Amino acid sequence: MSFLSLLARNRLALAGLIVMALVVLLALVTPILPLADPDVTNTGNRFLKPFSEGALLGTDHLGRDLLSRLLWGTRLSLAVGFAAAVIAAVLGAAVGIIAGYYGGRVDNLIMRGVDMLMAFPYILLALAIVAALGPGLLNALIAVAAVNIPFFARNIRGITVGIAHKEFVDAAKLAGMGDARIIVSEVLPNVVPVIVIAMSTTVGWMILETAGLSFLGLGSQPPQADLGSMLGEARSALITNPHTSVVPGVMILIIVMAINLLGDGVRDALDPRLRSGALTRPMAATMVQRKGPVPDPQGDNVLDLRGLETQFHVKDRIYRAVGGVSWGVKPGECLGIIGESGSGKSVTALSVMGLVASPPGVITGGAVFYKGEDLVGAPYERLRSLRGREVAYIFQDPLATLHPLYKVGDQLVEAIRVHHHVSDKEARAKALGLLKDVRIPNAESRLENYPHEMSGGMRQRVGIAMALANDPEVIIADEPTTALDVTVQAQILSLLDTLRREKGLAIVFITHDFGVVAQLCDRVAVMYAGRIVEEGPTQIVLDAPAHPYTRRLIACVPELGEGKRALHAIPGLPPAVNDLPPGCAFAPRCDKATEACRQGEIALDAFGARKLRCLFPETELEAAQ
Amino acid sequence: MGSYILKRLVSAIPVLLGITVIVFAIMALIPGDPATAILGSYATPENVEKLNRDLGLDKPAVQRYFIWLFNMMQGDFGRSFSLNRPVLDEVLDRFGATLVLAGTSFVLCSLIGVAAGVVSAARQYGFADKAITFVVLLGISIPSFFLGMMMILIFAVQLRWFPASGMWPIYGDRNLLVLLDHLLMPALALAVVATGVVARLSRSAMLEVLRQDYIRTARAKGVPERGVIWRHALRAAMVSIIPVLGIQAGFVLSGAVYIEMVFQWPGVGRMLVDAILKRDILLVQGGVVFVAACYVGFNIVVDVAQSLLDPRIKT
Ligand code: SF4
């Protein structure tokens, strides 16, 4: 049902369906329409123009009524095309199911043959078959069906292989069911939808191909004519009487286009990725739809977030990934942002430079001040010139975040040259220096490596080198050590710490691991469900966590610094950010929660150097004066 | 690299053998007696028997296959009875024209198709995307032979911009300009469907790549959007586009037959159709094997190009 409604929502597919239905209907009723005999020649009335007396579409070179020939030809072309599609689908599916179900040597042998057939240029094979069987419509049909069998066989085999190893098939075998019965009762029902889709996308091709063979004179033989041979016969009169060519040609175009529209619609309606919108491309910068007042910058932070709100708009649902987050970093300072996955910490970090994938991401409020300049809603070109030059990122998994097909040297050189007009040679020298800065041994030869040729730790060093390429003021590190093992993690952390001291970098370090925060960060902000719940100097928060959630997070680290990363010690899951409960978002998982916690908005109150969003803190804090 | 090419060449041998087996098997399907088919039903039994002996048809099929194969390996594809000349000579004469036509179409469909796909993806759901998507749909739905005829009608007959047919004028010079003048329309008509297919695939390959993390990295570095699309995303998307280009090469090579008919282009395709209608089986056999073998060779080139592009492929 949802499939049909999806199809209906796709207006083009619907148009295709309607046109196709009309054409099929016309073809079906052709025998009972009051038409002239399509094969009766009348040389006295040769080449009548369209709209002539008694011949709506005119006549052909033998004076035969074109309208009648068109409808009869359409009927024939459709029948042949559909027949070819059905034959190819049935035989191809049979071959594919046998290969996929039995596997082993049978599969090997069949697929070898299929590959051989697919090594042929397609139409050539059809020509060879017609050459052997001789010209004729039936032979053309056989040829077109035959050359399409490998396509179906390969598709269906893939699906069958997947099914043949499922438990229910094994169970049926154990129960003593015969192979034939298993195929019919277990395999076939799963394969049929695939066959239907494959047919809907190929029947257009089949009509075109049979028309093509007829056009060449190898298909339907006179006086019988399908659309292809009508075109073929009209070719000699193309210049003097073009209407005889245009009429059948346009008909083929209409039919094939309607089928293609319909086929695309069917495919799209069944593609789960299209349904979820996962195939939309992210734009160059996150969309901004800022409502409400723009806050003012405060303090002497290089990077300062004020009430940032970032949402994901998926269909009619709104996910408040970041719900009003404020923090800042000073030069040389390291701020840790910690939380479980889904807490909004990464989205906050990506929002800074407009890197949240959009659609579906939208920045809906607040401001991001870089040295006092608001970056939310800044022109793209301005944002781009700051990206990597002033604020640089280090991402989690460098195998996925470095380009797989460029050498790391070239990627470093590019990072330099997008912001500085230097020669390739100078940039290369600088890149070499960067690799040495991040303590990569044999830096010269490493420049020539592709990312997949390096170890995880080395790759992340490259990631850091790339972030350092333009001597940025701020580095935002989004879980840079999560994919690494513990010893490499410790090396990377100490490297970052040294670089921060040497270069006076401000670092925003995003992680879910308090052990990492303890090693590196001056201050830490704890995020839950898109908001900061506690913030303060690292050591003080570690010694005396005030928020129940913070306390649990710290309890998850068995021995500080050991880098135990799992967080499953906290029962329950973070709430879905499209459906936040009123009051404290942590209440469902908090064992101190009371009715008061669920009543309404709980503010992030300042207590000296600390901030807290909780009614019943674990540690009593002195209110700020 | 050298060893990779060698490996690919060796792996092509069974494919080539398979092709000859398939072609031979198809031809062995011929209903009735081929000699009768060639000589017509009024031939005397003596003549039929003699021809059968000449063609080696009195021997068992397996033996016949190996004789045919060995002869081909020595460059003897047999003799065309309808043209009364060696099959290979005729095929080679014609193949050049087909290669010029299909090669040009292939270049056109690769360049235009990929560019259209990239632009379409970069402007997803924008005006350019919708316009390209529509044109592509039109392109893959129109029969190339009909398109060719309409092009002749408009650009050759009405506007007189290009000659209506042939590869060379009957009289006059044969230089590159003259060739291009004759080539443009047929090459375009042949390229349209393939271009549409390439554009569609390039669009979806680009959309897939644009969501990858390394594209975000490129943006985070401050690479301008043009560089992100054409340097970072396209390079990665090419890995899945190139195999499709290989398939399209086969498509234009064999689809050339329609265009050769419409534009009277003196290529292999037209030769094959004539041979089929005259039941000149040896000529069909030789032509099909030759073109299929060339296509296998081209696919090796595609694979090598792919391995050059993607360092992750073990060479
Ligand atoms: S406000 Fe209440 S529910 Fe929320 S963390 Fe504090 S005690 Fe727990």
Overview of the molecule:
The complex is a heterodimer of chains A (625) and B (315). Chain A has 625 residues and is of the alpha/beta class. Chain A is 48% helix and 12% strand. Chain A has a domain at 2-27 and 56-278: MetI-like (MetI-like fold, Orthogonal Bundle), CATH 1.10.3720.10. Chain A has 22 helices and 13 strands. In chain A, helix 18 (456-468) runs parallel beside helix 19. The two termini of chain A are 64 Å apart. In chain A, 48% of the residues are buried. Chain B has two domains: 2-87, no CATH class; 91-309, MetI-like (MetI-like fold, Orthogonal Bundle), CATH 1.10.3720.10. Chain B contains twelve helices and two strands. In chain B, helix 1 packs antiparallel against helix 12 (281-309) and helix 5 packs antiparallel against helix 10. The longest helix of chain B has 38 residues, at 225-262. Classes of the chains: A alpha/beta (625), B mainly alpha (315). The interface between A and B is large, with 80 and 82 residues. The structure holds iron/sulfur cluster (SF4). The site of iron/sulfur cluster has 13 residues of chain A, from loops.
